[in-house]
Amino acid sequence: MNFRRLFENNKAVSPVIGVVLMVAITVILAAAIGSAVFGQGTSEPAPQADINIKAVNPGADTATVTLEHLGGDPVNFDADSSVTKVMVTIGNAATQVVDIGPVGVNDGLTDAFVLDVGKTQALILNDGIGGNNQITVAAGDTVNFKIVDVATSQLICDQDVRF
What we know:
It contains two helices and nine strands, in the order ααβββββββββ. It is of the alpha+beta class. It has two domains: 3-38; 49-162, Immunoglobulins (Immunoglobulin-like, Sandwich), CATH 2.60.40.10. A hairpin with a 5-residue loop joins strand 4 and strand 5. The protein is rod-shaped, with a radius of gyration of 30 Å. Residues 104-109 have low confidence and may be disordered.
């Protein structure tokens, strides 16, 4: 046997190494994509609710509204807007996140509550600074209300209310 000829004939080495490298790269990419796709946990969906918003005492200066839950999932309104955010746009003004204060509480602080199906809740809208900084709305103004789930940033309710 001629050993010199055995080591000099290396014509098939390059294609074999190329195929092995391509298979290795494909396996590594499939593992990376699979771990990225299947490694994510399931996220909680935003509550799906049908909420009707009405102005209380249209023409009054303070922005007092009634939320009525007509159907769907319960919606949690918390004291620090970490679960559900209420945003209002009065006319052409900038959108602002508001604190919600139950009617009858005049300290300007928010209270948490859960709005279940068939329930209504009257709210005074505060500007989020604290104290008695209630939002004022002129008679005839249209206010756009957006209720947003903070965890998913999904819209729960988007409604225009005329005062």
